[in-house]
Structures are given as structure tokens and as C-alpha cells.
Q: What sequence folds into this?
């Protein structure tokens, strides 16, 4: 008589997400397969579907987790901090470098269930945190349009992080977050190159 494999796993959802993050870090998001992740977790190929209906569901969960982690990193910078926006940008860069697989998925809306309420809420918490860094600047430092200043600040941090992750920047002797801080300096957002 053949032994039957029973479904028992402590936290399958976390196990699948963790395995997916490893795959994305090593081989990219295109290498994700629910069947392969089930094999890695030593469960039936259908088991991940109980937590994620499809690959997009899994990637949505990863993006949601990423936005939650990023929002926490940004809101950890106290409101009264000198050069708060610069520090938030440095935290953004640190987040991207510490969580490259999350970062790769978070900004690829075509891979996600964009109408997922948890994803929408996590994105909004992150956006609110980023906006708070700009809105609290005096008008002379942010320019006339806080929305455009926020877009400029986000673009600078995101672009720097993306260039660093892709290996496109020259080798840096300093910690990338320190390099970012030096790059931004204490200039008004409207004047940052």
C-alpha cells in the first residue's frame, strides 16, 4: 500500500512568500511558478492556491508586504527630524537594498491584482508617508507645488535605488544611503539635480 502524503505545514503562506522572495532575488520575477514553490515547501502543487489564487495573487501579497515595510521605514523618521525628507529618501534607498525582491515587484502593476484592498491600503500608507515628508517643508524648500516636489523627491530616491540595484552606478566607497544623503544635501527639492 502506498503511503499518502498529508497536508501539514506550520505556515504555508509565509513559507511560499519566503520561497518566492528567494526565487525573485536569485532569478527574477519571471522565474516564479506556484508549482515550483509548492515543491520547495514540500506540499501538493494545489496547496498554494488556498492562499494565493494565482501567481498574480502571490505577487500582490509580496507587493503589499513591501509597501507595508516601506511605509514603516518612512514613518520611523520622526516629524521633527532635521532634513527629514532627505532622511526619508535615504530610508527609501535602504529599504530597496535590504528588500530587493519586494522592490522589484512593488512597482510592476501589470503583475498585480491592482484592485486588491490590502494592496491599495498599503500603497496609500506609503504615499501618505512620502507626502508628509514634502508637505511639512517650508514653501521656500519645496517650491510652489507640493505635489511636483513630492514626485521629484520620490523620483530621486527611487531612481538612485534602482540604479544601485541594477549595478549601473560606479562602485561606491560609502554606504549607498550615505551617498544618497550627500547627493541630496540640504538644497530645496526644486533645486536637487
A:
Amino acid at each position: 500500500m502506498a503511503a499518502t502524503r498529508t497536508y501539514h505545514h506550520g505556515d504555508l503562506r509565509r513559507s511560499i512568500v519566503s520561497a518566492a522572495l528567494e526565487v525573485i532575488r536569485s532569478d527574477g520575477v519571471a522565474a516564479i511558478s506556484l508549482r515550483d514553490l509548492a515543491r520547495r515547501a514540500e506540499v501538493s502543487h494545489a496547496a498554494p492556491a488556498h492562499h494565493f489564487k494565482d501567481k498574480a495573487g502571490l505577487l500582490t501579497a509580496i507587493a503589499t508586504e513591501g509597501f507595508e515595510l516601506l511605509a514603516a521605514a518612512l514613518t520611523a523618521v520622526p516629524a521633527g527630524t532635521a532634513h527629514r525628507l532627505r532622511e526619508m529618501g535615504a530610508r527609501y534607498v535602504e529599504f530597496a537594498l535590504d528588500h530587493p525582491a519586494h522592490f522589484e515587484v512593488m512597482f510592476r502593476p501589470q503583475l498585480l491584482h491592482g484592485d486588491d484592498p490590502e494592496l491599495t491600503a498599503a500603497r496609500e500608507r506609503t504615499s501618505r508617508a512620502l507626502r508628509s515628508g514634502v508637505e511639512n517643508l517650508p514653501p521656500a524648500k519645496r517650491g510652489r507645488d507640493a505635489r511636483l516636489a513630492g514626485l521629484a523627491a520620490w523620483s530621486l530616491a527611487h531612481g538612485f535605488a534602482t540604479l544601485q540595484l541594477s549595478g549601473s552606478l560606479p562602485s561606491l566607497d560609502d554606504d549607498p544611503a550615505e551617498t544618497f544623503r550627500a547627493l541630496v544635501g540640504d538644497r530645496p527639492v526644486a533645486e536637487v539635480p
The CA atoms of residues 64 and 119 lie 5 Å apart. The mean pLDDT is 87. The two ends are 71 Å apart (CA to CA). The chain is about 60% helix and 0% strand.
